[in-house]
Amino acid sequence: MPKGAFRYLIKHEIIAEMGRIRQGKWIWFYAVFILLLAGASVAVWGYDENYDPSYFLFTAYMFPFMIFGFAVRTLKREWNGGTSGWWLTLPYSRVLLLGAKAIAAFVQIVACMVVYFAIVMLLGVYSRIMFGARVTSISGLFDLEAQLFAVLLGIVPLMLVIGLLIVAVRRSRMKWLVPLLWIVMGVGGNLSGWMMTGGGGLIIAGTEKELALISYPPSLWIWIVPVWAVAALLFAATVRVCNKHLQA
Amino acid sequence: MNDTANVAIRAEDVCKSYGSRQAIRNLNMAVPAHSVTAILGPNGAGKSTLMRMITGMETPDTGTFSVLGRKPSWELNRWIAYLPDRAQWYSHHMVEHALEWARTLQPGFNEMRARDLMVTLDLDASMKVEGMSKGEEARLMLALCLARDVPLLVLDEPFSGIDMISRERIVAALIDSFSEREQTVLISTHEIAETESLFDYAVFVDKGVAVLAGDVERMRAERGSLQQVYRQLYG
């Protein structure tokens, strides 16, 4: 393998995605709309006694589904863009080719998560300035964000690989498996939600006192091991489909 | 042609099916090394399936298939420059990015040669792929293939949907390229009249079977031009 080819493949994927974002003006429209909505929510809802900026973290449920979407798009692009012939005949193993796409999608989701948590933190700081000790402290919010970030890092590989597998199977002679894989994706999404609430044991509370008690149960971190093992198996299945079963 | 060194691609009783449709049936052929070989036949004859088998994108259901003396695989693709059928280039690239892509990912890519070809084919490094005409995009992809110093060049329908001027430019570039290097070249095309002068060897395929194969000069002497042979076989 020429020096830097794998790194180049990852860069190539990220640049393709950035180009899409630059061209899709509607993405910026949504970004501005959501930010305005969040700002307006704090301004209006903040005066309610039960308001707390940590509630915004419920929207983190989108990330497992976002990574699924990124994975679908990164692979589907090769066929939709007419470049699958170039990509599939590169003199590198399917593990490397798919691995580069997976890493690129992972880098993108991590970047999105960092931006997201930074925005929630800014809303938290603003809320603290505006409403005082009634809302979660900065350190409490940071602690909660750090835990949620770690749980998301544990979950996203599974949803990422399900996305890759669905596209590969859709382009193979095993198309009949696609409905089953959508069910797997649904289960993965639910599992993600379950893990993000600490197996049902985590309640994002509204007061500093309650938040101080919030911590993901240690058993949750053990769950990440089988989740990654399943992700690895599904990745191996994706490689196998791309090696043996793709259809013209 | 039993000598492995003289045969670039060999198929023995190769079959390939997609569900109930047999794309290739008992295909037997031997493409001579260092020749420019035409793979000819009507739509659905199995030409593209054959091309994809060479690059390991398809595997035969039965039979023996070898390329450069080995079983097709991703490893072998480092020795093959392949222009896929109905291919497009990455729309977010400029020509310069395409050169970087090939330089980084394609073993044997000769950048100097690619830049010369770009000039010959009237392409500028600052051109964006998005916004290129179909002919310009085809010329870019062909230049990237021709610039590789590899023993096997496989071009699947390089002229499909391209205007006459672009076709002429491409044929001229091919003639220059083939005269300079000792490569085995395989081209599948429907544009027989314009490309006939390129070929040393021809394989006519119909419904997945090689119905006629041989030296083009001999075919011409015995049966007329390739276009006439095509009409005799499929007309």
TrEMBL record, chain A:
Membrane found in the keyword field: yes
UniProt cross-references to Pfam families, sorted A to Z: ABC2_membrane_4
Where, by residue number, does the polypeptide cross the bilayer? 27-47, 53-75, 95-126, 146-168, 180-205, 220-242
The record's keywords, sorted A to Z, are:
Membrane, Transmembrane, Transmembrane helix
Would you say which domain of life the source belongs to?
Answer: Bacteria
Q: What is this protein called?
A: Uncharacterized protein
Automatic annotation (TrEMBL), chain B:
Q: Please give one Gene Ontology molecular function term for this protein.
A: ATP binding
The protein's UniProt keywords, in alphabetical order, are:
ATP-binding, Nucleotide-binding
Q: Which residues form a coiled coil?
A: none
Domain ABC transporter stretches: 9-232
**A Pfam family name for this chain?**
ABC_tran
Q: Check the record and name the CDD domains matching this protein.
A: ABC_DR_subfamily_A
**Protein name, as recorded:** ABC transporter ATP-binding protein
This chain's source organism reads: Cohnella terricola
Q: What is the lineage of its organism?
A: Bacteria, Bacillati, Bacillota, Bacilli, Bacillales
